[in-house]
């Protein structure tokens, strides 16, 4: 761990009110203060060669790809996929919120092969990640829809500070002043990493447009071979409508003290293009200019609508 991360990292930076969690900072990237306070344990986490790591920037289809992966792993057995809530099936390695066990503790207690989850950018991963040959599935979502979804999530999630007004949040997201830092740095970092690692890089918009095609990509990447009947089941069970009603995926079992879904549902719309209901003309123009500047020099492209 770098020297600058020890003392600097452990001071809370953004907070709103007593009930809401604050953000701290690691290497100039905002993270929940509970994660920052548990940073030593996270950095010592040992990845294994047969792990499968699901990674996304927050609100980019994380739960969706988790359920797809689990359905493939369980060969379309719906009952097996309901053995426990999704956040217990795939430990979230940077999760640290007492009195629950940390994500690292959950992962360490899990038999191999493990399916794990993270929102960390590449530069903050535990060193053991780079020593392992584990596979990674990364899902990226266009930044406009990602911003809108994150804003509504932050309104109801008690594990993050209040997002403030939409106007304030718009600026904070563009400037990376949200948990997990800059969307731009996150997606570009993982896009670059795919040249060195076994990474299946997927796009939210592609899964929405043609779920079966993307499910087949995941299946092949995982080394599985499932027949068309099972693929039918997986496609059906991982639809937004099904998952929104499924207590194993919709976070309805999570206490209100962590997620207050009376403010905004965890699974809200699951569509492409909802940003049009939030961005003003001026905001859209400002965002487009900023996007063009920050995405210059990368072959990574996104569709803002389908």
Summarize the structure.
InterPro entries: P-loop_NTPase (IPR027417), Sulfotransferase_dom (IPR000863). This protein is an alpha/beta fold.
* Global geometry: globular
Helical stretch tally: 15
Quickly give the CATH architecture: 3-Layer(aba) Sandwich
Number of strands: 6
Main β sheet profile:
4 strands, parallel
What does this structure look like?
This protein is of the alpha/beta class. It has one domain: Rossmann fold. The protein has 15 helices and six strands. The strands form two sheets. A four-stranded parallel beta sheet has the order 4-3-5-6, with helices on both faces. A two-stranded antiparallel ribbon has the order 1-2. A hairpin with a 2-residue loop joins β1 and β2. α12 packs across α13. The longest helix has 14 residues. It is globular, with a radius of gyration of 19 Å. The chain starts with 22 loop residues before the first strand and ends in a 12-residue tail after the last helix. The relative contact order is 0.15.
